[in-house]
Design brief:
It is found in: Cell membrane. Its main location: membrane. Keywords: Cell membrane, Membrane, Transmembrane, Transmembrane helix. With about 80 residues, the chain is an all-alpha fold. It has one domain. About 75% of the residues lie in helices and about 0% in strands. It contains 3 helices and no strands. Helix 1 packs across helix 3 and helix 2 crosses helix 3. The longest helix has 21 residues. About 35% of the residues are buried.
Amino acid sequence: MGIILWIIFGALTGWAASLIMKTDAQQGAVMNIMLGIVGAFVGGLLMNLMGYPGVTGFDLYSLAVAIAGAAIVIGLVRVLR
């Protein structure tokens, strides 16, 4: 994916994960984008470790993997705080 598509994908997934984890009011747009990109990486890595494909492009499967990864990242940040 190109850089612009990663930013859009990161914004969507970070925003969705922050809504699910109820942290949307605490984060801004830049944080949502960064969270979404990191979440896509974490989700893809975990799926690859389990033998499934990770983030494969701009589709619903990849969106679900990235949202799950971003939710895991939010959960880890909560535990570390």
